[in-house]
């Protein structure tokens, strides 16, 4: 059920064009006198800053309206609940697999309508033995064994299970996922009531108190969910986040399953659903709980994969993203998001390099300051929200400043990944995130 292979040379060519365009955008202002050289950055700061502030404002306004809704949180009756397959791709997850299965076994959902599927994707630790033992105690647990060299990464593992699944909906989880007992019931009720093609649970960090790095990731997840809520309210695009994504089976089939030619199956599927006309929602509560990476090296590997997958999907589906298949609000949302998330870091890098070579002052600092300031507002909006699950870090001024500074790592990751994608042929590898079993 995998999509046809995407020509890696086409991706390299598109990445190279993107890199050249951003390079010119960053360099050209240095040919102008200093006052005029700031005009592109100031103009973009007003346009993109307005988009960001409007997104967060609309999210907060909707949050206040939701609190007054009489029927908020209405659940489906037992008879009207659809069948659900929970799907987990696991490789070397001996530290968390017991907790995962035990947590899924106590979900408040009709047992005859719920099946749990774990794909053991070539594990070389005790994962296989633990899963075999768990099947003796949990009768709706199904194990699919996959050799380590099967290929396709996480997407390949998920695709292998699809022929065996019979449910109306598929809930995709990571092996370290933890849910509340009523999470699935509330998630499915929301999805069915809104006639969504897919719904993403907010991601909450379990180990936020481990160190500053995990604390900032917890704040980042709250910020991301707040921005996604605002994008949805404004008619924009919500993206799946891999862990805690509920997908309607017929929509997944319409998209051709999970794409094995990408390093981020969730981001890729988000765009294919959008192009097919399937809308995605996000649910703030209940969240799906997961571990944040605890070291800088692990964060660097993770963010490179996210950056590469994020760029891949824009380059792969660009013609459809600017076509009339999408609404004006969706196209505007995607353009603004792309400029802030991907173009700005590369332009800023080119700006700094040109400033160093020409011995002039940087020209894009107004836009960078506005972008980071908007992130601070989004941090504040997300972290001050009432939430279930692990407590969100308090957005006190010092912590907020440090968290904004932490986001500057994207100004290194995005340019580096862009240069690498433009120069080197990509070999698709599933970079595993290590889970410690908090």
Descriptive notes:
- With 438 residues, the chain is α/β, with parallel strands linked by helices.
- It is built from 15 helices and 7 strands.
- The protein has 2 domains: 8-66 and 323-423, no CATH class; 74-210 and 237-300, Spore Coat Polysaccharide Biosynthesis Protein SpsA, Chain A.
- The protein has helices at residues 8-27, 34-37, 39-67, 97-105, 127-135, 153-162, 183-194, 212-233, 249-255, 265-276, 296-321, 328-358, 365-383, 397-406, 410-423, and strands at 84-90, 114-121, 141-146, 169-173, 198-205, 245-248, 280-290.
- A 7-stranded mixed sheet has the order 3-2-1-4-6-5-7, with helices on both faces.
- Helix 5 links the parallel strand 2 (114-121) and strand 3.
Q: What's the arrangement of secondary structure elements?
A:
Blueprint: H1 8-27, H2 34-37, H3 39-67, E1 84-90, H4 97-105, E2 114-121, H5 127-135, E3 141-146, H6 153-162, E4 169-173, H7 183-194, E5 198-205, H8 212-233, E6 245-248, H9 249-255, H10 265-276, E7 280-290, H11 296-321, H12 328-358, H13 365-383, H14 397-406, H15 410-423
Parallel strand pairs: 1-2, 1-4, 2-3, 5-7
Antiparallel strand pairs: 4-6, 5-6
Helix pairs in contact: 1-12, 1-15, 3-8, 3-13, 8-13, 9-10, 10-11, 11-12, 11-15, 12-13, 12-15, 13-14
């Amino acid at each position: 059920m995998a999509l046809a292979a995407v020509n890696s040379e086409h991706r390299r060519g598109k990445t190279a064009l993107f890199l050249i365009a951003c390079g010119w955008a960053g360099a050209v202002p240095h040919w102008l006198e200093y006052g005029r050289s700031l005009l592109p950055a100031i103009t973009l700061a007003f346009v993109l800053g307005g988009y960001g502030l409007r997104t967060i404002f609309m999210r907060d306004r909707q949050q206040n309206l939701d609190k007054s809704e009489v029927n908020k949180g209405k659940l489906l009756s037992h008879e009207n609940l659809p069948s659900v397959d929970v799907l987990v791709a696991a490789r070397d997850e001996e530290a968390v697999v017991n907790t995962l299965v035990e947590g899924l076994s106590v979900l408040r959902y009709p047992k005859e309508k719920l099946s749990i599927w774990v794909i053991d994707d070539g594990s070389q630790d005790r994962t296989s033995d633990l899963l075999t033992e768990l099947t003796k105690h949990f009768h709706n647990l199904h194990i699919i064994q996959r050799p380590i060299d099967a290929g396709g990464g996480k997407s390949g593992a998920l695709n292998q299970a699809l022929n065996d699944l019979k449910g109306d909906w598929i809930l995709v989880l990571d092996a370290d996922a933890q849910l509340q007992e009523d999470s699935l019931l509330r998630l499915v009720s929301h999805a069915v009531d809104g006639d969504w093609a897919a719904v993403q649970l907010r991601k909450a960090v379990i180990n936020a108190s481990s160190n500053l790095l995990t604390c900032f990731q917890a704040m980042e997840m709250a910020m991301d969910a707040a921005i996604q809520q605002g994008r949805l309210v404004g008619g924009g695009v919500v993206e799946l986040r891999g862990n805690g994504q509920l997908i309607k089976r017929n929509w997944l089939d319409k998209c051709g399953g999970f794409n094995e030619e990408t390093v981020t199956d969730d981001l890729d599927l988000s765009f294919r659903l959008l192009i097919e006309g399937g809308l995605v929602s996000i649910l703030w509560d209940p969240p799906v709980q997961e571990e944040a990476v605890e070291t800088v090296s692990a964060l660097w590997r993770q963010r490179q994969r996210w950056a590469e997958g994020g760029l891949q999907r824009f380059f792969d589906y660009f013609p459809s993203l600017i076509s009339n298949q999408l609404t004006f609000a969706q196209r505007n949302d995607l353009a603004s998001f792309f400029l802030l998330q991907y173009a700005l870091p590369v332009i800023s890098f080119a700006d700094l390099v040109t400033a160093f070579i020409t011995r002039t002052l940087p020209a894009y600092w107004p836009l960078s300051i506005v972008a980071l300031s908007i992130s601070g507002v989004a941090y504040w909006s997300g972290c001050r929200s009432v939430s279930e699950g692990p407590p969100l870090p308090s957005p006190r001024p010092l912590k907020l400043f440090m968290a904004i500074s932490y986001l500057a790592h994207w100004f290194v990751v995005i340019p580096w990944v862009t240069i690498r994608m433009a120069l080197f042929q990509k070999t698709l590898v599933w970079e595993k995130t290590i889970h410690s079993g908090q």
